[in-house]
Amino acid sequence: MPFEPTPEELLKMGEGFFYWQGIPTLLGCELEQDPAKADIVLVGLPWTSNLIERTQYLGPRAVRHRSKAYHRKHREFQVDPFELARIRDFGDVPIQTLGLPDQAVLEVEQFYAKLDGDGAVPFTIGGDHACTLPVLRAIAGPGSCRKGPIGMIHFDSHSDTYGAVWGITHHAGAGFKIGKEEGLIDPERCVQVGLNGPMSDLAQEDFSKEAGYRLLPLTEIREISVPAAIAEIRCVVGEGPTFISFDLDVLTLSDAPAVADPEAGGLTINEVFQMLRGFRGMEVVGGDIVCFVPHLDPSMITAIHASAIMHDIVTLMAEAVARKREEKETPVVSAAR
Ligand SMILES: [Mn+2]
């Protein structure tokens, strides 16, 4: 069929492409406050727990600005995620105790608990990596609908499995330790992808190893190749509900210059796309992108790549929502016939 859009269709297409027009929202989605009216909720979490690169709280605003251009279809999957599921921008998490991480996480958890209660699955733009744990508590903790641990694909140069520092328990490097200790992350279904850079201590990843996480350092991915890494991740994570947490510092600096804890080397954006697309069919029930420092991003390379990664993960989530809906609508064929 020839591509001949009407003027009205052209206007609509422009809305999804020209990020500088209209009101900026995450992936150009409608703003919504009622979780019952959404399948996937996009949330800004403009919060930084640590003293390091505090301007990570500017992340959601910068991604809203650039990701408005990503209200478009998925080329490789040949689907429109915005048709598959009701995807809405829920605005930012309000936090009264901004400077007190151990209290702020309680407020963040409360916000996500409301969304979980209505059956919506969240995708968050942080903030630093302290943003992940309160979300896990809301969707996998004792008060959640699921009440059980979930699988985890954690992209990061760092394992973030460290104990309390500077008198702070819930700092940006602690979530993947506390998450296991509280039974939110299933250690047998957890992969840490892209670990890279010199170590502050040779024992810094021992918690992950002892917990039973699959560590997939950058050097191993280089050795075994990306397709083999995808197969390994799928093998570890399996069929169950899975969260994708993405620290932008796993990317090479030329693809993500504006990150809080930069390391030399890293995955390229194309390798990340290849991996995310290799996850098709997984039950992705949540995700986040963290550690973006917009004031170091004058070219908007990091914002564009964050937007594109978000578009890919949210498409995986939308396909999972659509599969669930189909399962519900398709009557189970009786075994005795
Ligand atoms: Mn990191």
Q: How would you characterize this protein structure?
A:
By secondary structure, the chain is α/β, with parallel strands linked by helices. It has one domain: Ureohydrolase domain (Arginase, Chain A, 3-Layer(aba) Sandwich). The chain has helices at 7-15, 59-67, 81-84, 101-117, 132-140, 175-181, 206-211, 218-224, 226-237, 269-278, 301-329; strands spanning 40-45, 87-92, 121-126, 150-155, 185-193, 214-216, 241-247, 283-290. The chain has an 8-stranded parallel sheet, with helices on both faces. The chain is globular. It starts with 6 loop residues before the first helix and ends in an 8-residue tail after the last helix. The model has no long low-confidence stretch (mean pLDDT 95). Residues 156-158, 247, 249, 261, 291 line the site of manganese (II) ion (MN).
Q: Supply the helix-strand structural class.
A: alpha/beta
Q: Looking at this structure, what is the CATH superfamily?
A: Ureohydrolase domain
Major β-sheet profile: 8 strands, parallel
Bound chemical compounds: manganese (II) ion
Average pLDDT, rounded to a whole number, is 95
Low-confidence stretches: none
For the biggest β-sheet, the strand order reads: 2-1-3-8-7-4-5-6
User: What percent strand?
Assistant: 15-25%
Termini separation (Å)?
Answer: 44 Å
Helix tally equals: 11
> What letter string, H or E per element, gives the SSE order?
HEHHEHEHEHEHEHHEHEH
* Number of E-type strands: 8
As a percent range, the share of helical residues equals: 25-40%
CATH T-level topology: Arginase, Chain A
Number of domains: 1
CATH class: Alpha Beta
